[in-house]
Amino acid sequence: MGGDKKDRIPEHFSSAEEAGEFWDTHSAADYWDEMEEVEMEFDLQERVFLVPVSDHIYYRVKQRAKLEQLSVEEMVSALLERELA
Questions:
Q1: What's the pLDDT at 33?
Q2: Domain boundaries, the chain
Q3: CB 62 within 8 A of CB 69
């Protein structure tokens, strides 16, 4: 009898990307018994704009973000802040 051993859900994810990578490869249906109901309120005060960039720029930013241990979004924001300061 070779039962499937599932990975444990991490206690905390270090970024939205890390959480996304976990759930991209795992089904919530397999963890339903570990889920708990919570109540949440959201007060969204910041707007986010999607801006297309060429693939070579994206990969350069992604590489730099990895070196600086930032998400791509954090790196783009930091680069734009520095440039526009």
A1: 87
A2: 44-85
A3: no
